[in-house]
Amino acid sequence: METTSTGSSRQRSSVATIDLDALDCTICYNPLQPPVFQCTVGHVICSSCHGKLADTSRCHMCNRDGGYRRCVAVDHILYAITVPCPNAAHGCAARTPYHDSHGHAAGCPHAPCFCPEPGCGFAAGATAALLAHFTGTHGWPATVMWRGRAAVGIPLQEGKHVLSLLDADGRGSHLFLLNVAQAGEAGLVGTVLAVEAAAHGHGDAARFECKVSFDRRGTGWRQSSTFGVRSTNLSGGLPADGFAFVAPNPPPAAATAASVTVTLFDISGEPGPPGNALRPVLPRSRRSRTRLSAQQPATTAAAVLLR
Q: pLDDT tens-digit profile of 172-193?
């Protein structure tokens, strides 16, 4: 890995090339972080590895006596050498010290999300670009949802459906993907995913809950499922597990396609502008439960609890 830096004002025409591997610890091979220690010959190690050495009286590489001492000069060099964010192609203009580049990338707001279509390879750091790709390139239907009115009816059919959640002023968009797949005689299985970079710092904690309500008139089948919405940047494609609701296959003579009502609940606890909040979160006693009302065997209920 290499980077370049210009010299002083008298030498702006010269460019120095630096092999960044030289700035890695000689024990753990991670980027050196101040404070740095070096032996009498000059072999350097990070402070973490220095604290783990069984014998600090001699160098681990050259075996010279004399132990290690702080190397302030290398500390200054480490702070001076900066590298561009790996998300520069997606709009990030930040430059960070080499030893802290991973820390910035973990929280970079320009981290990309990906297209889950096999072989596509599209990635974007902006929700609008990803939405345009889903609808324009792949033709996936899309529905706009508004905070305060975050409940929509969607045709229940196999495939992908994009949900774009907007604030009342049209900003603050969140992107969701409703994925429905065929599961043979069990019917249709589906889930709702929040498409966002893992860089937002929310970890695995769900920021949204989703309620999917299904009512097929004429069959007596009614279902309501509430589940935490998994966040993913789709870098590995669509999750192979985690289906949150099941709906029966339509009767052969069905004249119209069935539909589901999808409602989103913001459970992040983050304050927002008045009037832009989603509908209130369901009481805890009603969460993560699936209710059925139909002439179905008792064993059918277990299949609906696929998560």
A: 678 999 999 988 888 888 999 9
